[in-house]
Amino acid sequence: MKTIIAACSQNLSGSRASIQTALRTLLAAPWPSQRDVRSWLQLLSVLQWVLSFLLLGTVSLLLLIYLVFTSFWPISALYLAWIIFDWDTPEKGGRRLPCLRQWPVWRHFRDYFPVKLVKTHDLSPSHNYIIGSHPHGILCVGAFCNFVTGSTGFGEMFPGIRPSLTTLAGNFRLPVFREYLMSGGLCPVTRRAIGYLLSKNGTGNAVAIVIGGAAESLSCRPGVTTLILKNRKGFVRMALQHGACLVPSFSFGENDLFRQVVFEEGSWMRSIQQRFQKMMGFAPCVFYGRGLTSVRSRGFLPYARPITTVVGEPVTVPKIEDPSRETVDMYHEMYVRSLLKLFNENKTKYGLSETDELHIL
Questions:
Q1: Which of 103, 187, 250, 259 could be disulfide-bonded to 193 (CB atoms 3.0-4.6 Å)?
Q2: Which parts of the chain span the membrane according to its record (predicted)?
């Protein structure tokens, strides 16, 4: 009996010693610094954003289709009924949620790159505006961060101005994803949606349009700034019809976030991209960024490169219900000159050299 008690005491002492040793090892291990925690929060905020834009719509659609063949089919039926009832809402200003725009996650998203907004001129709340956003880049990070989230201080810099970013109308046909987009203040890049914001929503509206679109994303790569703008004049006609001022903006560093495989003009891959872009409205780019665990590995996350979005001087536009082609061309030329001026005055401040030029196609 004494032998058994001694053995138990020895095992208990050994266990206590093991626990004490483990605690000492744990306490001696280096804890993550505040900087490390901040870096991981920034990485996770960008990860959720990329996954939301690339997968949320498709996954939600597949899930609702799957539920149709299960006992949970009423969920799909009810959501289908809701979409039918709510079909025109994106075209009528959407359904923005201020709390989502001020979500703390967007501050970590902003600091990952970081993204900065620069104001050069005031915007009066008594007017409406069409903001041209350049360049398109791969995922329009600068436009999203500045005109959708409140993390860069757009509301404080331009008091009384409500920004709305436009995107492909097809995105608003995807379940759940459409709610996500509208909650951030996005609307379809259609005449009806833009016209509603500029004519039936009062004044103080700023509709941001990424004018180059999918075609411009095909030439996106570091060190090259090519804009598809020469024949893009629909936004000027819309501005004239509603008397909205034209405001150029340029996101320096947008093309440095990803690496893209650029196919030569005339190649079969380039032809496929262009045909796909004309049919579907977006181009299937072959690109890569950094990995999740390492900057050196390849993945789908953007590289951490500074983005500075400079909002230029407004071009005052008269209200003409049916502008002539000559009038549209004249104000389009004025807009291009204002954009070139903005680019040349700021390029050396934000990472470009004096010899870098803006190519407009």
A1: 187
A2: 63-85
Q: How far apart are the first and last CA of the chain?
A: 95
Three-point CA angle 9, 12, 17, nearest 5°: 125
Across all residues in the chain, what is the average pLDDT? 87
**Tens digit of each residue's pLDDT (9 = 90 or more) over 24-48:** 664 555 656 777 788 899 999 999 9
φ/ψ (deg, to 5) at 128: -105, 160
What is the distance between the alpha carbons of residues 73 and 58, in angstroms, rounded to a whole number? 18
DSSP 292: S
Q: Is residue 262 included in any domain, yes or no?
A: yes
Q: What is the pLDDT of residue 7?
A: 42
**Parallel, antiparallel, or unpaired: how do β-strands 115-119 and 307-311 relate?**
parallel
Quickly count: other Cβ atoms within 10 Å of residue 91's Cβ. 19
Domain that holds residue 70: 34-360
- The reply to whether omega before 32 is within 30° of 0 (cis) is no
Summarised one tens digit per residue, pLDDT across range 146-195 is 999 989 999 999 999 999 999 999 899 999 999 999 999 999 999 999 99
Q: Which two tokens stand for residue 310?
A: 């400079």
- As a residue count, the chain comes to 361
Q: What is the DSSP letter of 193?
A: H
Neighbour count for residue 321 (Cβ, 10 Å): 8
The band of 10, judged by pLDDT with boundaries at 50, 70 and 90, is very low
Residue 13: CA count within 13 A, CB half-sphere: 6
Output DSSP code: residue 56.
I
Domain presence at residue 21: no
Q: Residue 311 falls within a domain, yes or no?
A: yes
Domain membership of residue 58 (yes or no) is: yes
d(Cα 63, Cα 9) in Å, to the nearest integer?
58
pLDDT of residue 263: 65
Cis-peptide into 114, omega within 30 deg? yes
Task: Give the neighbor-by-neighbor strand order of the sheet with 205-209.
Answer: 115-119, 307-311, 245-252, 129-134, 205-209, 162-167, 186-188
